[in-house]
Amino acid sequence: MRAIVQHEYGPPDALRLEDVAKPVPKDDQVLVRVEAAAIHVGDWFLTQGVPYIMRLGTGLRKPRKRVPGFDVAGRVEAVGKDVTTFAEGDEVFGEASSGSCADFATAAEDKLALKPADLTFEQSAAVPVSGVTALRGIRDSGKVEQGQKVLVNGATGGVGVYAVQIAKALGAEVTAVCSTDNLDLARSLGADHVVDYTREDFTKSAQRYDLILDNVGNRPLAECRRALTDNGVHIPNSGRSQGRWVGPLGRMSKAALGSVVSRNQGRPYYSPVKRQELLDLTAFIESGSLTPVIDRTYPLAETPAAMEYVGLGHVAGKTVIAL
Ligand SMILES: NC(=O)c1ccc[n+]([C@@H]2O[C@H](COP(=O)([O-])OP(=O)(O)OC[C@H]3O[C@@H](n4cnc5c(N)ncnc54)[C@H](OP(=O)(O)O)[C@@H]3O)[C@@H](O)[C@H]2O)c1
User: Fold this and answer.
1) Can you give the residue range of the structural domain that contains 144?
2) What phi, psi does 112 have (nearest 5°)?
3) What domain count does the chain have?
4) Pairing with 262, which of 17, 154, 224, 287 sits 20 to 30 Å away (CA)?
5) 165 domain-assigned
6) Who's near 113: CB < 8 A, 6+ residues apart?
7) How much distance in Å is there from the Cα of 30 to the middle of ligand 1?
8) Which protein residue has the closest C-alpha to ligand 1 atom 31?
9) Can you give the CATH number for the domain in which 152 is found?
10) Is residue 316 predicted with pLDDT exceeding 70?
């Protein structure tokens, strides 16, 4: 099968289109014929092998996982002997175990769900990791309630486009922070207010928020907390950092420690994809309150260009690979 393969850590041109063996599903896994994949900033971190501390888990000198991509949508080709939820031919979406930038990928049964009927494979592949991350941040960690004031920093990136829509669906008054070019996109997602970060710093305004979901991490934690109501919570969600050794983990650790002493500091959270979250997102999609946003779609062979684009940090929605 065709697959994008990475033999070394490095810039996106370390990714090559090669012929490799089809992955074999374990007993509790599904083999998916990939119709579309999506890549996100986590894939970019893994390609680069930075921050270096991450290599303790991903392979010290070379990446253990040679094929990039987690988000997947496609058709079930075969199932392991313990799989009961899916059958050959089912159209599914979710998180792949082997890399999804390939003709076939394996995925654990509990990290897949049936594809939302009205979405294309490309739209479906744009949902899993970013959608689940937004759901956890807004609904589970943020516990957003009707009428609350929510600010999403990085509102038009992969996670942000879902976070704004989910917060609106839960009845919040949403402020979206993004660059000038993306203000209209933010409004189209339902944002009640927009802040252009090139002109205004949301931490300096007099406005106060019940929840800040921070997908960027470009303001000091203490300044973010000053933009909160008395019981408001700032939830940091990774973020970019120039530091090559620990990257955003320094800020994440500081936030985790801060959450012990300040009720306004939320703990960073991690969002492994689970079927129930995919089903919850499907319910939002089917009710019309959530629509995937695709910025660019690339053919498989152009995955390096797609990865380069993701690495720039200004994707408006999601970057999809169509097979
Ligand atoms: N917790 C988890 O399990 C989990 C899972 C997935 C992702 N994440 C983390 O979530 C974060 C967001 O991921 P993503 O996929 O949404 O990233 P993304 O698609 O690259 O989006 C980045 C966003 O940051 C904005 N931005 C860039 N520079 C900015 C600046 N100087 N000031 C304000 N905003 C700026 C961009 O807005 P413009 O385009 O308008 O400039 C864009 O909206 C990442 O840090 C990622 O590591 C966490």
Assistant:
1) 130-261
2) -130, 155
3) 2
4) 154
5) yes
6) 92, 93, 94, 275, 278, 279, 282
7) 31
8) 218
9) 3.40.50.720
10) yes
